[in-house]
Amino acid sequence: MEMELSTHEMDGGVTRVELDGRMDIAGAAAVDLKMNLIAGSAKKLLIDLQKVTFLGSMGLRSIVLPARAVHSRGGKVVLFAPTEMVESVLKASGIDSILPVHHDLAAAIAALQ
Amino acid sequence: MSSISCPVAAMPAEDVTKHASRLTLKSQLDDMASLWPWVEALIAQYAIPSDTAFAIHLCLEEAISNVIRHGYNGQPGETFTVDCASPNAHEVVFTIEDQAPPFDPVSGSLIEEQPATSPMDYLRPGGRGILLMRNFASRLTYQRLEGGNRLTISFVLPK
After folding, report:
1. pLDDT at B150
2. Angle made by CA atoms A98, B113, B56, in degrees to the nearest 5
3. pLDDT tens across A21-78, in order?
4. Contacts of B58 in chain A (CB under 8 A)
5. Segments forming the whole domain that contains residue A81
6. Which residue in chain A is spatially nearest to B131 when comparing CA positions?
7. Which of B40, B54, B65, B113 to mutate to probe the A interface, most A CBs <10 Å?
8. Is the ipTM, as predicted for this complex, more than 0.90?
């Protein structure tokens, strides 16, 4: 199944990006362009990972580069609801130290304000 | 197309876990599509739990893409092999052998180990794959072969 991406504009200027599928090399390639476009305008970006079943290093890159773009414009990025193994990748790579991981939606949104 | 040889089926039952299954891949990233059905079959064969299967996917994706992108420098036209064996009931071992120039992913020098001094440092785009392999594999071993490389990635299965 090809990686899928959908976006929703939420109250408070939060852009929620839902990723669905495997963030492997092919999955990363499938969403890179859309992620970069979103990162070009979003100021408060919530990346919803609850339907991401796999995250490899290229998938991480597809999260990190847009996050870097948002941060460079003074915006904020949070990661929402990764599975246990996806979160272990975030922790092992140290990404969680700069992109907060939340499992509660209200807390994730609050962290963006 | 990739080729698969799987002598396991011909082995006596008591030897099944000791013998290898081999996949031959081309030195191009799109050939990695044939890796996952092979890996999934092995995961089913050895009844590998989902967390270990995740770790296997992560390490093989990284190791094999490294062979293609760095070992062979993205040049198509070469082939290399991935073997899987289970030396005992609690371990699965993948061995990747290529004929590429020396490339040692186990070496610390390939990891961006400089400390992060700002948030942006943590958001470097690359340099995490080998770090992840070290975290998710039970053991990583590199051997320089005559005219090639051998990377062995072991996973201990939960008892």
Report:
1. 97
2. 80
3. 999 999 999 999 999 999 999 999 999 999 999 999 999 999 999 999 999 999 999 9
4. 54-57, 89
5. 4-112
6. A93
7. B54
8. yes
Could you tell me how many CB contacts below 8 A there are between chain A and chain B? 63
**pTM, rounded to two decimals:** 0.87
Minimum CA–CA partner of B62 in chain A: A57
Q: What is the pLDDT of residue B121?
A: 58
What the block records as the tokens of B25 is: 């891949």
- A66-99 burial, b at 16+ Cβ within 10 Å, e below that, comes to bbbbbbeeebbbbbbbbbebbbbbbebbbbbebb
What's A106's domain CATH number? 3.30.750.24
pLDDT range class, residue B20, cuts 50, 70, 90: confident
Give, as one character, the DSSP assignment of residue B94: E
Helical H segments across B8-140, by residue range: 35-45, 50-66, 119-122, 129-136
Q: What is the CATH number assigned to the segment(s) B3-156?
A: 3.30.565.10
Split at pLDDT 50, 70, 90, the class of B117 is low
CB contact under 8 A, B61 and A25: yes
Count of structural domains within chain A: 1
Give the pLDDT of residue A2.
82
Out of B119, B125, B128, name the one closest to residue A65 (CB).
B125
